[in-house]
Amino acid sequence: MSAAVHIKTILATLTWVPVIYTFTEHVYQPYFITGRSMTPAFNPGTSTMTNDITMVQKFGLKSPDSLHRGDVILFRSPLSPEKILTKRVIAVGGDTVACTHKYPKPTARVPRNHLWVEGDNEFHSIDSNNFGPISQGLVVGKVVNVIWPPSRMGADFSGGGRNALVE
Q1: Which one of the listed residues 47, 80, 87, 125 is annotated catalytic?
Q2: EC number(s) for this protein (predicted)?
């Protein structure tokens, strides 16, 4: 092969870099779920040190009705914005939730455009019971599927979390 053919191949390959970047930043992105706060929905085999890799939807999440109770989301920690946390939406704006012993009040009303989020594993989770409701503007993405390990592909992670709604 000539040098011109190699250069054309390299240039053709490089033209895909902006497309891939845009897709992963704004549409869908694979994401490693680490830690034990969402066990057993994610990383059920934490003793084997395996982490689930999920597909995260990043588009269409800013409208007030785009997220629902039971959705698993990624968001910037209100305590440490450089950290991305994974938790389950327990309540949406307008809901009243029963808080755990970590929260200073027995119940909390979730403000408009805010979410109450909790980890499925209460004893290993820093969540809304620690820092209160989060602004929907902190949401980075919504987990839509497990893509690794193959044995967990398509795993059903809905329905976890506690029923914390009051009334």
Answers
A1: 87
A2: 3.4.21.-
Q: How far is CA 138 from CA 5, 80, 161, in A?
A: 46, 12, 20
For the question of residue 37 being annotated catalytic, the response is: yes
User: Count of alpha carbons within 13 Å of 135, Cβ hemisphere only?
Assistant: 6
Active site residue 125: no
List, for residues 69-107, the tens digit of each pLDDT value: 999 999 999 999 999 999 999 999 999 999 988 889 999
pLDDT in tens, 24-69: 887 899 998 888 889 888 887 655 557 888 999 999 888 878 999 9
Which among 2, 8, 37, 47 is annotated as catalytic? 37
Q: Which domains does the chain have, with CATH numbers?
A: 3-152 (2.10.109.10)
